[in-house]
Amino acid sequence: MEQSGDIHLLMTQFGHTSTTTAALYTNPEQEKSKMAAKQMEERRTNYCEKD
């Protein structure tokens, strides 16, 4: 989100169907949001490695 500014791209990346949910991750200054995004990325990476 920090690089593209595209909420719909963020929605796709996180698998959200609502911009409201995706908007929780749009403020890069919130440490909690950063941590959640990092954990989601780790889960996605681990899931992809299983395939």
Description:
- The protein has helices at residues 7-14, 19-23, 31-50.
- The chain has one domain (7-50).
- The chain is 65% helix and 0% strand.
- With 51 residues, it is mainly alpha-helical.
Into how many domains do the coordinates divide? 1
The shape, in one word, is: globular
What is the C-alpha radius of gyration, as a whole number of Å?
Answer: 11 Å
H-E order: HHH
Strand content: under 5%
Name the poorly predicted regions: none
Largest sheet: none
**Span of the ends, CA to CA:** 27 Å
Write a short abstract of this structure:
With 51 residues, the protein is mainly α. It contains 3 helices and no strands. The chain has one domain (7-50).
SSE layout and pairing:
Blueprint: H1 7-14, H2 19-23, H3 31-50
Features:
mainly alpha, 65% helix, single chain, 51 residues
